[in-house]
Amino acid sequence: MCGKILLIKINAKGIYLLKTLIIENDEGMISFLSGTLKKEKYKVIIAGNKKSGLIIANREKPNLILCSLKGKEIDGLEVLSEIRNNNSLLSTIFIFIASKTERTLYRQAMENGADDYLTTPLTKKELLNAVSSRLKRQEAIKKYLSSLLKQKWSGIQSEEKNLEDEVLEKLDLDDKILVDSDERHKLIKVRTIKMINSVGDYSKIMTFDGSRFFFRRPMKEWEEILPVNNFIRIHRSTIINLDYVDKLIRTSNRVFNVFLKNESKPVNMSRRYSIKFKDRFSK
After folding, report:
1. Where do the DSSP E strands lie in 107-201?
2. Whether the predicted pLDDT of 9 surpasses 60
3. Is the pTM here over 0.85, yes or no?
4. In angstroms, rounded to a whole number, what is the distance separating the alpha carbons of residues 223 and 193?
5. What CA–CA distances, in Å, run from 96 to 6, 52, 108, 142, 195?
6. Are residues 220 and 137 in the same domain?
7. β-pair partners for 281
8. What domain count does the chain have?
9. Mean pLDDT comparison of 16-25, 138-147, 213-222, 240-249, highest-scoring range
Protein backbone atom coordinates (compact mmCIF):
# COMPACT_ATOMS: atom_id res chain seq x y z
CA MET A 1 0.00 0.00 0.00
CA CYS A 2 0.99 3.64 -0.31
CA GLY A 3 0.91 6.32 2.31
CA LYS A 4 1.84 9.97 2.56
CA ILE A 5 3.59 11.05 5.75
CA LEU A 6 4.02 14.64 6.82
CA LEU A 7 6.93 15.08 9.21
CA ILE A 8 6.60 18.21 11.35
CA LYS A 9 9.97 19.70 12.28
CA ILE A 10 11.02 22.85 14.06
CA ASN A 11 13.85 25.09 12.93
CA ALA A 12 14.91 28.70 13.48
CA LYS A 13 12.30 29.87 10.98
CA GLY A 14 9.44 27.94 12.56
CA ILE A 15 7.43 24.85 11.56
CA TYR A 16 7.72 23.25 8.14
CA LEU A 17 6.56 19.95 6.63
CA LEU A 18 8.65 17.17 5.12
CA LYS A 19 6.71 14.79 2.90
CA THR A 20 7.43 11.08 3.00
CA LEU A 21 5.74 8.64 0.65
CA ILE A 22 5.54 4.94 1.62
CA ILE A 23 4.92 2.37 -1.11
CA GLU A 24 4.21 -0.93 0.67
CA ASN A 25 1.48 -3.60 0.68
CA ASP A 26 2.49 -5.86 3.57
CA GLU A 27 0.04 -5.27 6.44
CA GLY A 28 2.62 -6.13 9.08
CA MET A 29 5.16 -3.68 7.62
CA ILE A 30 2.47 -0.99 7.31
CA SER A 31 1.59 -1.48 10.98
CA PHE A 32 5.26 -1.30 12.00
CA LEU A 33 6.01 1.83 9.94
CA SER A 34 2.79 3.56 11.03
CA GLY A 35 3.30 2.80 14.71
CA THR A 36 6.96 3.87 14.70
CA LEU A 37 6.36 7.08 12.81
CA LYS A 38 3.25 8.07 14.78
CA LYS A 39 5.22 7.86 18.02
CA GLU A 40 7.66 10.33 16.46
CA LYS A 41 4.77 12.70 15.63
CA TYR A 42 4.57 11.73 11.97
CA LYS A 43 1.18 11.79 10.28
CA VAL A 44 0.60 8.65 8.21
CA ILE A 45 -1.96 8.25 5.42
CA ILE A 46 -2.51 4.85 3.79
CA ALA A 47 -3.12 5.23 0.05
CA GLY A 48 -2.82 2.32 -2.42
CA ASN A 49 -0.32 0.44 -4.59
CA LYS A 50 2.56 1.03 -7.02
CA LYS A 51 0.41 2.86 -9.57
CA SER A 52 -1.15 5.17 -7.01
CA GLY A 53 2.27 5.60 -5.40
CA LEU A 54 3.70 7.00 -8.63
CA ILE A 55 0.67 9.26 -9.07
CA ILE A 56 1.08 10.61 -5.52
CA ALA A 57 4.84 11.07 -5.99
CA ASN A 58 4.29 13.10 -9.14
CA ARG A 59 1.58 15.21 -7.49
CA GLU A 60 3.02 15.71 -4.00
CA LYS A 61 6.78 15.89 -4.78
CA PRO A 62 7.84 14.13 -1.53
CA ASN A 63 11.19 14.66 0.17
CA LEU A 64 11.50 10.95 0.90
CA ILE A 65 10.15 7.68 -0.52
CA LEU A 66 10.19 4.38 1.39
CA CYS A 67 9.43 1.60 -1.08
CA SER A 68 9.07 -2.17 -0.91
CA LEU A 69 11.51 -3.87 -3.27
CA LYS A 70 9.14 -6.70 -4.14
CA GLY A 71 5.45 -7.10 -3.39
CA LYS A 72 2.00 -7.60 -4.85
CA GLU A 73 1.54 -5.03 -7.63
CA ILE A 74 4.89 -3.49 -6.67
CA ASP A 75 8.19 -3.72 -8.54
CA GLY A 76 10.50 -1.46 -6.58
CA LEU A 77 13.12 -1.22 -9.33
CA GLU A 78 10.47 -0.04 -11.79
CA VAL A 79 9.24 2.53 -9.28
CA LEU A 80 12.82 3.74 -8.76
CA SER A 81 13.35 4.02 -12.52
CA GLU A 82 10.18 6.11 -12.90
CA ILE A 83 11.19 8.39 -10.03
CA ARG A 84 14.75 8.93 -11.28
CA ASN A 85 13.50 9.73 -14.79
CA ASN A 86 11.21 12.45 -13.43
CA ASN A 87 13.11 15.75 -13.35
CA SER A 88 10.79 17.17 -10.71
CA LEU A 89 11.77 14.33 -8.32
CA LEU A 90 15.54 14.30 -8.84
CA SER A 91 16.23 15.45 -5.27
CA THR A 92 13.80 12.99 -3.66
CA ILE A 93 15.47 10.52 -1.27
CA PHE A 94 14.64 6.91 -2.17
CA ILE A 95 15.06 4.08 0.38
CA PHE A 96 14.24 0.44 -0.35
CA ILE A 97 12.74 -1.90 2.23
CA ALA A 98 13.53 -5.54 1.39
CA SER A 99 13.79 -8.98 2.93
CA LYS A 100 17.17 -10.61 3.47
CA THR A 101 16.41 -13.03 0.63
CA GLU A 102 16.36 -10.04 -1.73
CA ARG A 103 19.85 -8.95 -0.68
CA THR A 104 21.19 -10.02 -4.08
CA LEU A 105 19.38 -7.04 -5.63
CA TYR A 106 21.19 -4.57 -3.36
CA ARG A 107 23.92 -3.63 -5.86
CA GLN A 108 21.41 -3.28 -8.71
CA ALA A 109 19.21 -1.03 -6.57
CA MET A 110 22.09 1.24 -5.57
CA GLU A 111 23.45 1.40 -9.12
CA ASN A 112 20.00 2.48 -10.33
CA GLY A 113 19.96 5.44 -7.94
CA ALA A 114 18.62 4.27 -4.57
CA ASP A 115 19.91 6.23 -1.58
CA ASP A 116 19.69 3.41 0.96
CA TYR A 117 18.60 -0.21 1.36
CA LEU A 118 17.03 -1.50 4.59
CA THR A 119 16.48 -5.22 5.18
CA THR A 120 13.82 -6.82 7.35
CA PRO A 121 13.43 -7.62 10.15
CA LEU A 122 13.90 -3.91 10.75
CA THR A 123 14.15 -2.21 14.14
CA LYS A 124 12.63 1.14 15.00
CA LYS A 125 16.07 2.59 15.62
CA GLU A 126 17.37 1.44 12.23
CA LEU A 127 14.36 2.97 10.46
CA LEU A 128 14.51 6.32 12.24
CA ASN A 129 18.30 6.58 11.94
CA ALA A 130 18.17 5.85 8.20
CA VAL A 131 15.45 8.44 7.58
CA SER A 132 17.12 11.05 9.78
CA SER A 133 20.61 10.63 8.30
CA ARG A 134 19.36 10.85 4.72
CA LEU A 135 17.29 13.95 5.41
CA LYS A 136 20.26 15.60 7.12
CA ARG A 137 22.47 14.70 4.17
CA GLN A 138 19.92 16.16 1.75
CA GLU A 139 19.78 19.38 3.78
CA ALA A 140 23.59 19.62 3.81
CA ILE A 141 23.70 19.19 0.02
CA LYS A 142 21.06 21.88 -0.43
CA LYS A 143 23.02 24.30 1.75
CA TYR A 144 26.21 23.55 -0.18
CA LEU A 145 24.51 24.07 -3.55
CA SER A 146 22.85 27.23 -2.26
CA SER A 147 26.26 28.54 -1.21
CA LEU A 148 27.73 27.76 -4.64
CA LEU A 149 24.77 29.46 -6.32
CA LYS A 150 25.21 32.59 -4.20
CA GLN A 151 28.92 32.70 -5.05
CA LYS A 152 28.17 32.25 -8.75
CA TRP A 153 25.44 34.90 -8.67
CA SER A 154 27.73 37.29 -6.83
CA GLY A 155 30.36 36.76 -9.53
CA ILE A 156 27.82 37.37 -12.30
CA GLN A 157 26.62 40.58 -10.64
CA SER A 158 30.22 41.75 -10.28
CA GLU A 159 30.93 41.05 -13.96
CA GLU A 160 27.74 42.85 -15.00
CA LYS A 161 28.66 45.84 -12.83
CA ASN A 162 32.14 45.98 -14.38
CA LEU A 163 30.62 45.73 -17.87
CA GLU A 164 28.09 48.42 -17.04
CA ASP A 165 30.82 50.71 -15.71
CA GLU A 166 32.81 50.10 -18.87
CA VAL A 167 29.83 50.77 -21.15
CA LEU A 168 28.84 53.93 -19.27
CA GLU A 169 32.31 55.44 -19.36
CA LYS A 170 32.21 59.15 -20.18
CA LEU A 171 32.70 60.05 -23.84
CA ASP A 172 34.81 62.84 -25.30
CA LEU A 173 33.99 64.72 -28.50
CA ASP A 174 36.67 62.84 -30.45
CA ASP A 175 35.61 59.41 -29.19
CA LYS A 176 33.91 57.12 -31.67
CA ILE A 177 30.83 54.93 -31.29
CA LEU A 178 29.81 51.94 -33.39
CA VAL A 179 26.40 52.24 -35.08
CA ASP A 180 24.39 50.21 -37.59
CA SER A 181 24.03 51.64 -41.09
CA ASP A 182 22.06 49.65 -43.69
CA GLU A 183 22.96 46.37 -41.97
CA ARG A 184 26.60 47.47 -41.82
CA HIS A 185 28.63 48.78 -38.91
CA LYS A 186 30.06 52.27 -38.96
CA LEU A 187 32.16 54.35 -36.58
CA ILE A 188 31.08 57.94 -36.02
CA LYS A 189 32.67 60.64 -33.88
CA VAL A 190 30.68 61.98 -30.93
CA ARG A 191 31.20 65.56 -32.14
CA THR A 192 29.32 64.77 -35.38
CA ILE A 193 26.10 63.95 -33.50
CA LYS A 194 23.58 66.76 -33.95
CA MET A 195 20.58 65.27 -32.13
CA ILE A 196 19.38 62.08 -30.42
CA ASN A 197 15.71 61.10 -30.22
CA SER A 198 14.08 58.33 -28.21
CA VAL A 199 12.24 55.73 -30.33
CA GLY A 200 10.84 53.01 -28.07
CA ASP A 201 13.74 50.94 -26.73
CA TYR A 202 16.08 52.52 -29.27
CA SER A 203 17.68 55.91 -29.85
CA LYS A 204 17.74 57.59 -33.26
CA ILE A 205 21.00 59.44 -33.84
CA MET A 206 21.14 62.25 -36.41
CA THR A 207 24.56 63.52 -37.48
CA PHE A 208 25.59 66.89 -38.97
CA ASP A 209 25.33 65.56 -42.55
CA GLY A 210 21.73 64.37 -42.09
CA SER A 211 22.57 60.67 -41.63
CA ARG A 212 20.40 58.72 -39.21
CA PHE A 213 21.32 55.66 -37.17
CA PHE A 214 19.59 53.53 -34.55
CA PHE A 215 21.26 52.53 -31.30
CA ARG A 216 19.89 50.40 -28.45
CA ARG A 217 20.44 52.71 -25.48
CA PRO A 218 18.00 54.70 -23.30
CA MET A 219 18.13 58.50 -23.14
CA LYS A 220 19.17 58.47 -19.49
CA GLU A 221 22.41 56.66 -20.36
CA TRP A 222 23.14 59.05 -23.23
CA GLU A 223 22.66 61.92 -20.82
CA GLU A 224 25.18 60.36 -18.43
CA ILE A 225 27.97 59.64 -20.93
CA LEU A 226 27.85 62.54 -23.41
CA PRO A 227 30.05 65.62 -22.76
CA VAL A 228 27.94 67.90 -20.53
CA ASN A 229 29.40 71.08 -22.00
CA ASN A 230 28.26 70.15 -25.49
CA PHE A 231 25.09 68.10 -25.15
CA ILE A 232 21.90 69.04 -23.34
CA ARG A 233 18.53 67.40 -22.92
CA ILE A 234 15.68 69.62 -24.06
CA HIS A 235 12.83 67.13 -23.88
CA ARG A 236 12.06 63.77 -22.32
CA SER A 237 12.79 62.25 -25.73
CA THR A 238 15.41 64.64 -27.17
CA ILE A 239 19.08 65.52 -26.63
CA ILE A 240 20.84 68.10 -28.82
CA ASN A 241 24.43 69.13 -29.47
CA LEU A 242 24.80 72.82 -28.56
CA ASP A 243 27.45 73.26 -31.25
CA TYR A 244 24.73 72.83 -33.89
CA VAL A 245 22.22 75.30 -32.41
CA ASP A 246 21.53 78.12 -34.87
CA LYS A 247 19.00 80.12 -32.85
CA LEU A 248 16.43 79.96 -30.05
CA ILE A 249 12.98 81.53 -30.16
CA ARG A 250 10.97 81.91 -27.00
CA THR A 251 7.25 81.28 -27.48
CA SER A 252 4.27 82.82 -25.73
CA ASN A 253 4.12 79.73 -23.54
CA ARG A 254 7.56 80.61 -22.15
CA VAL A 255 9.21 77.64 -23.77
CA PHE A 256 11.90 77.61 -26.45
CA ASN A 257 11.86 76.47 -30.03
CA VAL A 258 15.35 75.33 -30.99
CA PHE A 259 16.54 75.75 -34.58
CA LEU A 260 19.47 73.53 -35.50
CA LYS A 261 21.84 74.33 -38.34
CA ASN A 262 20.63 73.17 -41.75
CA GLU A 263 17.23 72.22 -40.29
CA SER A 264 14.12 74.12 -41.41
CA LYS A 265 11.82 72.96 -38.62
CA PRO A 266 12.44 73.78 -34.95
CA VAL A 267 12.78 71.25 -32.16
CA ASN A 268 10.44 71.91 -29.25
CA MET A 269 11.93 72.31 -25.79
CA SER A 270 9.56 71.24 -23.02
CA ARG A 271 8.56 73.64 -20.24
CA ARG A 272 10.50 71.64 -17.67
CA TYR A 273 13.71 71.67 -19.68
CA SER A 274 13.17 75.29 -20.76
CA ILE A 275 13.38 76.28 -17.08
CA LYS A 276 16.52 74.18 -16.61
CA PHE A 277 18.02 75.66 -19.77
CA LYS A 278 17.34 79.23 -18.65
CA ASP A 279 18.75 78.59 -15.17
CA ARG A 280 21.90 77.06 -16.61
CA PHE A 281 22.72 79.78 -19.11
CA SER A 282 21.50 82.78 -17.12
CA LYS A 283 24.28 82.46 -14.57
Report:
1. 116-120, 176-181, 184-189, 193-199
2. no
3. no
4. 13
5. 19, 17, 12, 23, 72
6. no
7. none
8. 2
9. 240-249
